[in-house]
Task: inverse folding
């Protein structure tokens, strides 16, 4: 009987492990509207540090793909908004590739102001190759998501973000103030600029430890009822 209890508990845990491999994908396309909602303010984050933000008056359609979740769904949040607060350090160019450290956070809210998801970065990277420009975040450099109430309402109970966690902002149509270069050729400090942007991101989603414990306990109770 002891072996039966152990097997039942293990079965419950392995069943949940399959659900633990599920994940979420996030995205929004550039809203267009003839404006550039992303702006950088030179030295806005301190001496030599740019401050990148997003015009929160510009709505976005934020898509959450949870089709691989235990309770599958796909949700488009129309009239969502993006709060962007990123600090960008001076640029470094090696072999034609320009990089810069980017740290800070972003928050996506629904039309009523409720948080959908938040991303926090300790050491992301701006990367420029040729004419392409991206801001990259990964859990391997300290990036993490936090689920807001609007997203938790769509998930099965007890789900929480887990690695791998990634996010990419693609910057296009970058326009610098007065036609200046993107960054100063001497100081490498980023000049004022505005840009369009699109976004993609992903995260695994797993049960919280409390949820795992409840499932394990449920397996034991089922085994006891079979005695």
Result:
């Amino acid at each position: 009987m002891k072996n039966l209890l152990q097997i039942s508990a293990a079965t419950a845990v392995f069943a949940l492990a399959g659900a633990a491999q599920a994940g979420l994908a996030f995205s929004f396309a550039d809203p267009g509207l003839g404006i550039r909602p992303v702006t950088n303010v030179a030295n806005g984050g301190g001496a030599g540090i740019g401050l990148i933000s997003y015009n929160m008056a510009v709505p976005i359609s934020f898509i959450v793909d949870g089709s691989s979740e235990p309770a599958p769904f796909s949700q488009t949040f129309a009239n969502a908004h993006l709060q962007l607060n990123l600090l960008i350090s001076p640029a470094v160019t090696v072999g034609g590739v320009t990089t810069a450290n980017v740290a800070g956070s972003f928050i996506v809210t629904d039309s009523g102001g409720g948080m959908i998801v938040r991303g926090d970065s300790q050491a992301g990277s701006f990367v420029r190759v040729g004419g392409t420009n991206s801001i990259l975040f990964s859990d391997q450099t300290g990036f993490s998501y936090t689920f807001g109430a609007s997203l938790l309402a769509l998930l099965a109970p007890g789900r929480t973000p887990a690695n791998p966690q990634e996010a990419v902002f693609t910057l296009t149509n970058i326009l610098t103030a007065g036609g200046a270069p993107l960054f100063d050729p001497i100081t490498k400090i980023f000049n004022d600029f505005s840009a369009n942007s699109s976004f993609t991101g992903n995260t695994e989603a797993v049960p919280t430890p409390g949820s795992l414990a409840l499932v394990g306990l449920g397996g034991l109770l089922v085994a006891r009822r079979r005695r």
Q: What stands out?
A: Residues 37 and 55 are 5 Å apart (CA to CA). The radius of gyration is 22 Å. The longest strand covers residues 159-176. Residues 2-225 form one domain.
